[in-house]
UniProtKB/TrEMBL annotation, chain A:
PROSITE patterns: UPF0033. It comes from Cytobacillus oceanisediminis. Belongs to the sulfur carrier protein TusA family. It comes from the Bacteria. InterPro entries: TusA-like, TusA-like_sf. This is tRNA 2-thiouridine synthesizing protein A. Residues 7-31 form the UPF0033 domain. It holds the Pfam family TusA.
From TrEMBL, chain B:
GO terms for biological process: glutathione metabolic process; hydrogen sulfide metabolic process. This is Glyoxylase-like metal-dependent hydrolase (Beta-lactamase superfamily II). It comes from the Bacteria. Residues 16-111 form the Rhodanese domain. InterPro entries: Metallo-B-lactamas, Mito_Persulfide_Diox, POD-like_MBL-fold, Rhodanese-like_dom, Rhodanese-like_dom_sf, RibonucZ/Hydroxyglut_hydro. It holds the Pfam family Rhodanese. It comes from Cytobacillus oceanisediminis. GO terms for molecular function: hydrolase activity; sulfur dioxygenase activity. Residues 353-374 are annotated as: Disordered. Keywords: Hydrolase. Residues 353-365 have a biased composition (Basic and acidic residues). PROSITE patterns: RHODANESE_3.
Length: 75, 374
C-alpha cells in the first residue's frame, strides 16, 4: 500500500487520536492514504464510524502487539 | 473549566427520579448497546468526532432549562465537548471517569432489619444492574455475590465494625467478575460456591450445598441454601433470617433467569421451571425476593433498592405465570437477548483459569448484564 503520511498517536487517550487524525488527513490530498498508530482501544469503533461519517475510507486495520494500526484513504 | 459530576451524584439523581439531559458523545453502536438509565433522563447521542468543528449544529437540540451532563467512554471526549458547550454559553457538567466509572459505581442501600437487631444491605451497581448483599449481625458480616470492586465491601464492613466471615456466590457468574475470592483472601473469610458450578475451579472453596446453614454473629441469623438450578446447573438461593430470599440469577423482579450462558439452554429449561414453579412455590409468599440483578430502571423501588414480596412476583411476574410447558421452554431458549460482553472470559476468570489485569477486567465487563429473559 502506498502510504503518504504516518501518524503516531500511541499513548494518547480519546479524543486525541481522532483529533490528530482529522488534522493529519487535512494535510494530504484526496485519494492519498494516512496510516495511524494508536494504543487507544476505543479507536477501533470510533475511527470506523468517523471515516464513515466524513466520507473517508477505512481500508484496513490490524492489531500489532497492542499497537492498533489503521489505513485511511482520504475521500 | 467545565464542572465534573461524579457517578455517585448521577446515581442519586437516578434514585430520586430527577431530571437530567444526557449528551452522550460515544459512537452510536456503544450508545445503543448501553447507556445511563434514569426515569426522567432525556438523551441526545452525537459522537464527539462529529463535533470537532464545533457544537453549533446541536445547540438547538439541547434544552437550556435542563441540567446538562456530557458522557463518554472514559472522560476525555466529554471534557472536550463540555468545554465547547461552555464557550457557547451553556452550563454543563461532564461525567467523571465516563462510562467506565459508571460501570463501577456501587451504592449501598439498607434494605431491612434482621430479627436480632442486625441489618441487611443491598449494594446497587447502578450502571450494570448487578446487586450484591451484606448481612451484618453482632459484629460479623456475610457477603453474597460481591462485585470486583472489593474495597467498597471491605470499607463498608469496617465502617460498621463488622468482621467479614463468609463470602458466597449464588452461582458462577457470566456477566461480571466476582470479588468473592479476593475478599476472602484479603479478610480470611470463607469463600463458598455451589460445587456443581465449581468443577473447573482452580482454587480452594467451601462447598455450598442444599440445606447448609451458616450463622452470622452469635445470634440466630441462619443463611439457608436452597439448590435452585436453571440459570446455571449449580445455582443456589439463600433464605436469610426467614425473611429474605436471595434469588441469584433465577428470579428477578420483572423477568426470570436465562439458562443458556453456560451453554445448555435446552437441558436447563426444565430445571429452571422446576425451581421457579415448584421449589419457590413451596417457600413462604411473605419472603422478600432480592435478586442478583435488575434489568430496567423501573425495577428500582423509591429508595433505589430492588426487592419485592415473593407472593407479589407470583401474581405479577410474567415468567412465573406461563402455564404451558412448551411456551415456557420457548421463552427461555429462543430469541434470547445477545449474550453479555466477553461472558466466556468472565466465567474463566471466575474459575481462576485466567487472571486478566484490572484494565482488561473493566473492558470485559463493559455493557449491561443481560442475564434475564422477559
Amino acid at each position: 500500500m502506498n502510504v503518504t503520511k504516518v501518524l503516531d498517536a500511541k499513548g494518547l487517550a480519546c479524543p486525541m487520536p481522532i483529533v490528530k487524525t482529522k488534522k493529519a488527513i487535512g494535510e494530504i490530498e484526496s485519494g492519498q492514504v494516512l496510516e495511524i498508530h494508536t494504543t487507544d482501544k476505543g479507536a477501533v469503533k470510533d475511527l470506523a464510524a468517523w471515516t464513515e461519517s466524513t466520507g473517508h475510507e477505512l481500508l484496513k486495520h490490524e492489531d500489532d502487539n497492542g499497537v492498533l494500526k489503521f489505513w485511511v484513504k482520504k475521500g | 473549566m467545565a464542572k465534573a459530576m461524579t457517578a455517585k451524584e448521577v446515581t442519586k439523581k437516578v434514585f430520586n427520579n430527577e431530571e437530567l439531559f444526557v449528551l452522550d458523545v460515544r459512537n452510536e453502536s456503544d450508545f445503543n448497546d448501553w447507556k445511563i438509565e434514569g426515569k426522567n433522563f432525556e438523551y441526545l447521542n452525537v459522537p464527539y468526532f462529529d463535533l470537532l468543528d464545533g457544537v453549533e449544529p446541536i445547540l438547538d437540540k439541547i434544552p437550556a432549562d435542563k441540567e446538562l451532563l456530557v458522557v463518554c467512554a472514559k472522560e476525555g471526549s466529554s471534557v472536550m465537548v463540555a468545554e465547547m458547550l461552555e464557550e457557547a454559553g451553556r452550563e454543563v457538567s461532564y461525567l467523571t471517569g465516563g462510562m467506565k466509572a459508571w460501570s463501577e459505581q456501587l451504592e449501598p442501600v439498607k434494605v431491612g432489619d434482621l430479627k436480632d437487631g442486625g441489618e441487611m444491605y443491598q449494594f446497587v451497581r447502578i450502571g450494570k444492574g448487578c446487586l450484591s448483599y451484606m448481612v451484618i449481625s453482632n459484629g460479623e458480616a456475610a457477603i453474597v455475590d460481591a462485585t470486583r470492586m472489593t474495597d467498597v465491601f471491605t470499607d463498608f464492613a469496617a465502617e460498621k465494625n463488622a468482621e467479614i466471615k463468609h463470602v458466597f456466590d449464588t452461582h458462577l457468574h457470566a456477566d461480571h467478575i466476582s470479588g468473592g475470592r479476593k475478599i476472602a483472601e484479603k479478610t480470611g473469610a470463607s469463600y463458598w460456591l455451589p460445587p456443581k458450578d465449581a468443577e473447573e475451579l482452580t482454587f480452594e472453596y467451601n462447598r455450598l450445598e442444599d440445606g447448609n446453614e451458616v450463622m452470622i454473629g452469635s445470634t440466630k441469623i441462619s443463611i439457608q441454601a436452597v439448590y435452585s438450578p436453571g440459570h446455571t446447573i449449580g445455582s443456589t438461593s439463600f433464605v436469610v433470617d426467614d425473611q429474605y430470599l436471595l434469588s441469584g440469577d433465577i428470579l428477578f423482579i420483572d423477568s426470570i433467569g436465562r439458562p443458556d450462558l453456560a451453554g445448555k439452554a435446552g437441558d436447563w429449561a426444565g430445571d429452571l421451571r422446576e425451581t421457579l414453579y415448584k421449589r419457590y412455590k413451596e417457600l413462604s409468599s411473605e419472603l422478600i425476593v432480592m435478586p442478583a440483578h435488575f434489568m430496567i430502571i423501573d425495577e428500582l423501588n423509591e429508595d433505589g433498592s430492588v426487592s419485592e414480596k415473593l407472593g407479589t412476583l407470583f401474581a405479577k411476574n410474567h415468567g412465573l405465570n406461563i402455564e404451558d410447558d412448551g411456551e415456557f421452554r420457548k421463552l427461555v431458549s429462543e430469541n434470547l437477548p445477545p449474550q453479555p460482553n466477553a461472558y466466556q472470559e468472565i466465567r474463566e476468570t471466575n474459575m481462576g483459569k485466567i487472571s486478566p489485569d484490572e484494565e482488561k477486567q473493566r473492558e470485559m465487563e463493559i455493557g449491561p448484564n443481560r442475564c434475564a429473559v422477559r
